[in-house]
Design brief:
679 residues; 13 helices; disordered N terminus; alpha+beta
Amino acid sequence: MRDVTFRGSRVLAAGSVLSTFLSTGLFAQESRPMTVEDVLALKGLSQVSVSPDGQWVAYVVTGRDMEEDRQETDVWVVPAAGGPADVRQLTFRPGSDDSPVWHPSGEWLAFSSDREGVRQVYGIRPDGGEAWQVTSHETSVGSFRFAPDGARLGFVASPPATEADRELEEVRGRPMVWDSVYTDQWSRLHVAELEDEVAGEGVRWSPDGLHVVSFVWAPDSRAVAFGARSSPVLRTTYYGATYVQAGAEAEARSVTSMPGGENPVAWDEESGLIVSGTGQLLGTYNRQLWRVPFGADGGALDPVSLTADLDANANLVHIDGSRLIVSAARRTGATVYRIPLADGAAAGPPGDLTDGRRYYSGASASADGSVLAFTAEDGMAPPDIFITPMDTFRPERLTDLNPQVADLALGEQGVESWPSRAGGEEIEGVLTLPVGYEAGDRVPMVLVIHGGPSGISSDRFNATRGAYPVQVYAGMGFAVLQPNYRGSSGYGERFRGLNRGDISGRDWVDIDSGVDAMVERGIADPERLAVSGWSFGGHHTYWGITQTDRFRAASAGAGANDLISMYSQTDIPEFYHTYLGPKPWEDWDLYEERSAYRHVENVTTPLLIQVGERDERVPAEQSIQFFEAVRAIGKAPTSLVLYPDQPHGVRSPRLQRDLMSRNVEWLTRWVLEPEALVP
């Protein structure tokens, strides 16, 4: 039985504001299909920040400079009582201006900029004018926060290289010694006094031997709590702790050290110190928000979870003595929840603050929690900023970031579900139909498989999924299915843990069962199917084409194919402790059995492979290995593209163009026009 909810078609009664919000998709069928160039022209929206008094909303807009081949980010503001006609761009210089943080007075905001080469903090007023330099630290400044009284600025920065390091580098170069770090790779916490809106010299607070990753100020501005670990090396992430320090010369006192590490996210006068963590060393457990109580002697007591009843990863938005506001994924959507508090503990179950009609994310609240700003989007409309009173959900639109989308024909999008052949587990996926689709049409279909595996495909504006331009595919006549196989986030802790010890097992069956369902429901043409995915989606793509020949084309991005070698190549070998259990030498058979490379002789599907040359997460050697095997066996056409100087995700705008264009060309060649290849 078909179970489908197309959200874009059931929101027209939601009110004039939200109807206007969806106007980009209402007449899309009369417009032209989306192209790769249209995807590249889309502007991104992030880092929403409400001023303390709730009068302004700052945010960051990201665009692509194709001529200079770089991402450009700028800070914008809009008055909370305004609308799209009132938006104001504050920064204009080439490069990266981002991370807006309001001064507690609300009179100006700080932001991070690389305009002078070394990243520093700058200030600007919301009504415009020239920006001024706030910090002049000798190395680049990372995250920063104002003290609540506005008199000091805390920031994280690395120390300069020592004279000994510089002298040694002149003689011997700078070799990369695996799992070791140089002095200038540590992050330290510094505090600077503010005078006339300019920071003085930063005084280092955090001690040697601690790599600081985050911090918050105490409500009285006299102390900080910071999250730190014993080394910058990535694998120490699971062993971090929270420290409290009341001055440059004071002791950094460990107040909690939960398994799996944690980071402080707030220090509220009424609710106390709040940290984020799972409380588990390894695994697929929910990230919770915990209150750290202190005893009469000032010593920390056991943390108390405030979000134990929220079966999702909790992200802090706002906290005071009576309520906790968090955002979290929920199935294919995202929402904002209110949790009542009393006596420092949760006093009731989480309740929806938003209405569940679309994808809500990036939430920010005013200092008193009276207003909430957030981004909202759905399958037919890109994200824009809305604002609402906190006590009742009445969203008003503040921006119109991508008005050109109104001229594009988009494929209708919704959510499908199906039972997996592996035990009948209910699986969901986001389905985007071809532009102009009519019920009963059988159309070519491509899988776009998310990574993680604890990632998620959401019912949001999926114009692009990195390498895979979903709405471009819809304009070409494809249906696009993005399955949330077992292990995906958004469905609770139980579901997210169902593939532990079983990757390349029932999780792939979940995906393949979705293909069966779309064929059975008369949507997908079984003779014109394709599969693709990046990272763990690339892993699934490799695995899938060794298990079946049903696909006419495949595109694997940065996927692992040989889990034995991958264990020692990746920068996160702990991943395999979580998802397989034993280490390779403890169970060679398991690692070999779940490696696509073990079955590579079965591949007959035309295969495109794409990967960043400097990928540390899934190194390019994994892609090269599979490519060389497929090519040597000779049963399937294959192509390997390495993107120079690119990490796990391709960042160069020009190479992003190539990335997407090659996938469009590959699907056209092997799925839409295969007859052209027959002599």
